[in-house]
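Reference record
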Amino acid sequence: MAGGRTERGPRRRTHAASVVVPFPRNAAGDRLDLARLVPSGRSLLVGVLILAGVLGAYWVAQSSSVFAVERVEVRGDAPPAVVKQVRAATSDIVGASLLTVDTGDVEAMVRALPTIAGVSVDRAFPNALVVKVAAERPVAVARLRRTAWLVSGSGRAIREIELGTRRSYPRLWLGRDVELAVGRSLPADVVPTARALAAARSVGLRRSIKSVRTTGELTVVLRSGPEIRLGDSKDVLLKLAVAARVLPALADGTAYLDVSVPERPVASRYLNP
């Protein structure tokens, strides 16, 4: 010991021992044993027999009367007359197998009816086909020359009616060059008006509208009160909503209310200012 220090010998460094653990190897060495991945002949035979059984069962079900359509169920809010039309359109399906019925074709066939606004078709095993429909709702009578047509909110002609009937519906006066037929749409500039009439109940004008003129600009003629000038066919519902709010504030004797620019409605006592 010198100067209070204790001298020690050199430190020994220790090394971690390495251990090699041998893994057993099969006789084939590192090669992948592909023979284990290949199914046996018996497994292949069983698989083929199962597939053949499934296909055979499908063929038997398809060609037999097990899943034959016995009835077509029409559901939805359609009136009895529309339900009758749908049943008539799908009558040929009765007796066919549900497995062979193309629901897309059935939907297209039913949607082609002028009284149908929407349709979906589902199979109801074992023996029923369910057709869910939404019927077109008449909103106006289109007057064309000496004919009258009941039209829907989507602008389709539902059917021709006798002149002077359905007086509670607004009249749409069409140009003489227009041609209509059952299921055909109104002219493009009139369709927005039909759609607006379908929603007019929500703004309180449904029962007040007597007719709609479509020559030049759209003009709504009320059963009592001023006519409503809508201008073009854009934003018709917005214009009608503005008109419904302004009308109660107008003075008696007002001839027209112009809402062609809905942000700035204009009223006048004179039809031709």
User: Anything to note?
Assistant: The helical segments are 41-63, 80-89, 103-111, 191-199, 236-246. The first strand starts at residue 71 and ends at 76.
